[in-house]
Amino acid sequence: MTTKIFLQQLSNGISLGSLYGLVAIGYTMVYGILRLINFAHGDLLMVAAYTAIYGITLFSLPWYVSFPLAIIITGIIGILLDKCAYKPLRDAPRISLLISAIGASFLLENLALVIIGGVPKAFPRPEVFAKVIEIGGIRIQMLTIYTPIITLILLFGLLYIVFHTKVGKAMRAASVDFETTRLMGIDLDRIIAFTFLLGSSLAAAGGVMWAMKYPQVNPFMGVIPGLKAFIAAVLGGIGNIVGAVLGGFLLGLGEILLVAFMPEMAQYRDAFAFAILILVLLFRPTGIMGEPLVDKT
Amino acid sequence: MLQVDDIHVYYGGIHALKGISLKVKERQIVTLIGANGAGKTTTLRSIVGLVTPKSGKITFNGKEIHRLKTHEIMRLGIGISPEGRRVFPNLTVLENLELGAYHRPPQEFKKDLEWVYSLFPRLAERQKQLAGTLSGGEQQMLALGRALMSRPQLVLLDEPSLGLAPLVVEEVFETIKAINEQGSTILLVEQNAMAALHVAHYGYVLETGRIVLHGTGEGLLKDERVRKAYLGE
């Protein structure tokens, strides 16, 4: 393999990895606060992609209005998801929540299937992102360059919120102790809703970029990236935001480089990702950056 | 200020509180003493809305609060240092105090912080430290300070002396007295009956979900039944 091809693949890996990371943040945040793997999280990518398409085709909005709008709307759908599927089960055993999450995931997918249909829709790619440039003989699409940059900007914004604002402090408090958080006069339901808003918006940003990368949008498009992001979150250490992004980068790079070095393994790409999940769970369940989380009651 | 009127609480099939009534008057220290499982903590949890009494009434400054949510009750001017201290271990000392002041106007924050630091100078020294790394005594100071950051009219203290070295216990009770002298009303739940009755203006003795005795702190200290059952004589 030439250096050129290697660098080409490296940039692809970073770009893919940052998308995993962006989606993984939502898993990790919701897990941190509710100890719940929100299996409907991946489907929010699909929701965001369709919303962005309809913004452009149905309402003739320019992409720079339609994309942010899709992100906001998906964030609000994330809050509704919590209100409908998880909030009524706040005091129920953890397993009920998990089942509810799987149900919510099927509901979103099948609603999309019934309302929109299973025929894939083409996702519009604005020129800014579709443009291909050449750096040192490597041809790179602008999207590949923008994706990790956008991811890092969003990551730092999020870290600022979590570590330097009042609501962020309340989120961190709630992640260890619901009851005492309430005793501080904090409306816990609002903190949880805010967590879903942030996590879902980031997933939506990931969804829009994913749809630009693979411009075939269908009701099940969120399943695989959702599962991959879940693996990334576990790999990085579930509950840890920086870990989620790191896990995403590592998984994306690993996948792409596996295929680059061993093209005959290309079909095993997904198997490789799930093997990583199993290995992490077996040998280091707290992931790279995670600390053992207290088992909340 | 606070009035609890014949509340009954059930946990599953267990009748945990069988008609508790008590009163806390402004500027008093009122204590609730009794053995483990007598219902002391359950009484506090009912006041702050973490458990809902099946019947009975709780009023704070004349307003019924037993149907409100916990955060609404706390915002009326109640602060609590919960059982087991429950500081947020993953947050710094300063961040813990900031959460105590969550619903206070931000412009008051500095003044309140200075006040709490003057009560607990140790917290000022450790403000950047994670609360989980503090000693038990320091965590208790932090839990108290955090409760005071909301400038509450009523402070609820759940076993503030539990698990602390005797010297630190003394310090805690000194502080409770000092806070009270500065104008705070205090409802103190304690197993350490002797120390509690010494600082309290009024006391209630709980046994298996009922109040069996009540009177002034001094009166209860002299009461033969109290001396036998709780002071080990």
- Biggest sheet layout of chain A: 2 strands, antiparallel
Q: Which percent range describes the beta-strand content of chain B? A: 25-35%
User: What number of domains of chain B?
Assistant: 2
Put simply, the count of helices of chain B is 10
Question: What distance separates the N and C termini of chain B?
Answer: 35 Å
* Alpha carbon gyration radius of chain B: 17 Å
Please report which band the strand proportion of chain A falls in: under 5%, 5-15%, 15-25%, 25-35%, 35-45% or over 45%.
under 5%
Shape of chain B: globular
Largest sheet of chain B: 6 strands, mixed
Q: How many domains would you count in the coordinates of chain A?
A: 1
Question: Quick one: how many beta strands of chain B?
Answer: 10
* Element pattern of chain B in H and E: EEEHEEHEHHHHEHEHEEHH
Domain ABC transporter (chain B): 2-233
Family (chain B): Belongs to the ABC transporter superfamily.
Pfam families (chain B): ABC_tran
Protein name (chain B): ABC transporter ATP-binding protein
